Amino acid sequence: MKNETSFDSRRQFLRSSSLGLQWLAFSALAAKTSSAATGLAPRTGHFPAKAKHVIFLTMRGGPSHVDLLDYKPALVKNSGKEAVIGRDSSGAKLLRPAHPFARFGNSGLQLSSLLPRIGEHADDLCVINSMHTDVPNHSPAFLQMHTGSFQFVRPSLGAWTVYGLGSGNENLPGFITLNPPAGDGGAQNYGSAFLPSICQGTRLGGSQLPALYAAFLKKQEAPGPPMKNISNPHLSTGEQRRQLDLIRSLNEGRLRREPGQPEVEGMIESFELGFRMQSEVPGVLDLGAESVETLELYGIGKGADSFARQCLLSRRLIEAGVRFVEIASPEHWDHHALLSTNLQKSCESVDQPVGALLADLKQRGLLEETLVIWGGEFGRTPYAPGLDGRDHNHKGFSLWMAGGGVKGGINYGATDEIGYEAVEDPMHIHDWHATILHLLGLDHRKLTYNYGGRDFRLTETSGKVATGILA
Amino acid sequence: MKTTTSHLSLVLVSLSFAWAAERESFDFFETKIRPVLIEHCYECHSVESGKAKGGLRVDDREALREGGDLGPAVAPGKPEESLLLSAIRHEDPDLEMPPRKPRLPDAISADLETWIASGAPDPREPAADQTVPSSGRAAGWQDHWSYRPPVPVAPPKVDDEAWAGTAVDRFVYARLQSAGLTPSPEAEPTTLLRRLSFALTGLPPAPGAAADFTPDKLEAVVDEMLASEGFGVRWGRHWLDVARYAESNGKEANISYPHAWRYRDYVIEAFAADLPYDRFLREQIAGDLMEASDESERARLLIATGFLALGPKGLSETNPVQFAADVADEQIDAFSRGMLASSIACARCHDHKSDPFTMTDYYALAGVFKSTETRFGTWIDSESNQGSKLIPLPSLPGQLIPNPSLTKKELAEVKAKLAALDAEEAERKKAAEIAMAEGRDRQEDFNEMLRNALRIYWSRGPLVGKLDTVDEEGRALPLCMGALEAEAMVHSPRYERGEINHPAETVPRGVPSVFSLESEGEVPADTSGRLELARWITDPQHPLTARVMVNRIWSHLFGEGLVTTVDNFGPTGAAPSHPELLDYLAIRFQENGWSVKQLVRELVLTRTYCQASTWREDSFAKDPDNRLLWRHPKDRLDAEVIRDAMLAVSGELDLSPRPGSLVAGLTSQSIGILPLNKDVPHDLDGSLHRSVYLPVLRDHMPDILRHFDFAEPSLVVGRRDTTNVPSQALYLMNSDFVRARAEGFARRLANESSDPETRIRRAFELCFSRPPDAVEAELARNYLETPENPDTTATEMLTRLCHALLASADFRIVD
Question: Are B734 and A209 a contacting pair at CB < 8 A?
Fold first, then answer.
């Protein structure tokens, strides 16, 4: 009891030392919550929303929209003719989709025939065909997709989401990223920049076994717990709480001696969260509780299944209340060469697990409140500089979203007749970010953070919500 | 000496004045004119767009002045005669630009008029002046700051000579002042000592050092740290980040590099001995081609070329041409990013609009590296289709050879197995020949044949690989990874889109001809060209090399580089916050014989470095990122420093270098199955040596390094991320390593004193170089005296207290 009292007074102190914790006062949202001491306390947004969670399936490398999501009869018709528009297109020839498109669902949405399992959910998909971004290079485009900026260190989409809404479970990080790539901007892609570090993405994942041993041992990941150091063999929970109180008091002392140290506030919060995670994480990560049918649905236990496991894990994390989960594609979709075979390979590696994830979410009634996003940092050119490959294209590309308050079974926006440039309802990354935040009940113009005297936001000074995709 | 200096500075001042004036006029062009031309005109009038409508291009000075079919577009000094202006103002209905669009704002035409009236200063060189007309070198690339040679600039005069005593301080102070900021007061002596100790040696100050330290001893203390072995460890590790040092291949075939540690030790020794940085770079590119005074020097030079061999490789690649192209690509990427902060490897597939390096440059370099034999020393097996030998080192007295020997019996067994495989292969070949001669249909046996051939191929690899590491008696040989001249010297074709099945013209191998340096151009027929490349990189006139290193050193001392994108000095990188200071330091670095220690010494002895890190509201509001250096930044300790500091505090740190590496003794080469090896500690640690000696395995990093943002060893990393996530908290609370250090720490305290008060004071002094304040002492006392469970022993409570101190923010933040 004594501990609790001093704990409360420290909390009081932290709340009153406004600097750094200024974000708690953000838009009066935090004031509505009773336990604002943890930055993870759930908050309601600026207006009621359907999407409560996001599962962001990032297809790194730039998946070819003209082969997968953006069917262009003119491209088929003129395949082999010289390209007349487009960056670095001199001498390049237009190239028809490497594999046929097919119609799916009642909506008749056209998708590549390489995506049959995802196609089963065509009537839930909102395919955005008019995406565009600023540069055709992987690292900057990947960063911009995540943070809105490639020139400056800015908070990522997941961090802004947690900042705006907190988490549905204070015992888990609000933002979890599974196996993020080390390159293409690295930790910045799930970083919190100047936002409180509790908003930062936490990495999870075991280490991969080489293919040969994986086949031999029939598992892809090395033995050992999926998350280490999640329990303490020496101290009881009560004893650890007392030790943690001591650490916390020492850290607060540092804050008292000198204001302006948000990183110390971040350390305090991450210790509190780490402490709480100990009771929650082992259960969530245990896929053993899933039925055989579910495992089969995702394709777990057959061949290379780490992406399938991550998809299933993302559903478990969402169920447990995590706000934002990101999974990086096992494939790099950078098909400069051998497009026809490699695209097929890439599609095969994601189609079943992603189709299963949609089915699983729907079956549990979670799809309505979960926004699922599938897309890469840009698309590819309709023309082939070589024989069987496409270059990067940032002027027009496609991605799809499902659930979470988007209209299903529709195409939104359009590129020109060959699929090079977004011409109808163009959606810049800022517009896309604005729309995602809107689906989460957040107004991108109001979701700001004052840093160094200036109000920053995810969409910088632009961003327009695409109302046409709202269900 | 004095006179020379003052003459020199006079010259510098006048030079800088002329340069500044020119730059100022270009500034107007850069900020007001160029963007307008690019945005509104390039689409129809530039090389980039491939269009010159009406015969006009506006993308270089001469083309613009010469004009198109209608005459000069810009007549310097004469706005009324400049067609560009009248077109933009829509003065002539037949010539309205941009076409079919609303007239541009008046502010733009006013800027254009101002610019033309002032003589239309325009830095953009005409295409004809460019060095390689055949290639698509981007127009105007020379305008980018980092591709111009550093310009000597005298430090500005400032009104507070007392504060801004050193040249560096004057540059910093002038910028602070012009932004209405003031520097921070000097840091507390203890704070400063800790900051220096971590920055220079990667260790906390020795116990008791803080009590003896006074600011007048600063120089002596710095000199002592610079001379310590810790300096080599700390700064060698910075370079190892850049050199993407690792002891395994990573990627899809993660195979160990058991001899990589020799390069690690080479780097540590180079920084400890203050090897001139230019020589250090030359050794890594071409050490095998340099003269050695003795066998020991020869060994050192061979090991240096390990830089070229350490990269991640696509070992599962079956096509040797593709593999060679990819290895060369990785080498080009590593040296250009690491040494020049430039991405030459980006020109593999096509030229880039803003980069100076072209496909021609790239394939000239590819020829250099394809004429080089990279010896990485992994063998062929089921995971890996590419193998290579190692480089035998001269035998030296007292030489460390940690790789395993074979007993006579083992050697005989290996040889027998190899002979059996050879015999089997010969027999199968013969059987196949007979079958063919008899005209039998072999199709049905085909799968069987293939399986056997593969089995023999994969089984032979490890045997041959083992034999390569021992002498005739089975004794382990001293070996290293590295580079040698290839048997045949080749030129590389330029590959369209970088695809090896689309070779275009052959490019003579050579050094990129970009900066018009003597060291550029084709190389002699009988050499790979690495020596020439090494000379080019370290050419005193090279605009990048010295600047890049000076900036790296600055970033390690001041938290951020003057150029924040430390690995990217190209057009997509950041501009320098203090361009004159960067140039001043780059020139000075060279003048001082490329001495890293002298530069570090000069920087840490500035007022700028010695400032307090205390937050100040007014300054923060003006410059939240501290780009102008109104305070010293607060830094979280690097992963390896956190570990070393814990070992130092617990009294367990073994300062002797770990001989070799954990990886050197592994018998299997597959890293993926390491977690199945019960002899290897689960956190890949289990030693008390400094962290620089921990195994650096791609995708399998020791826990503490992984959690605290160690450099990703597959990439050139000049600047590490700093994350702050709960998995770090869980590591600090629950890991075996931290618990073991807490136990060691408690033992140390208990051995030194039995008095709880003394123990508490000593614990704080060891951890933070200061005694506890009253509140802290009370907290600690209270914690020790009131265990949750009354049966808990006093030793256990002391351990838990120590654990808490190691996990506290104070422990891992340097002020």
Answer: no
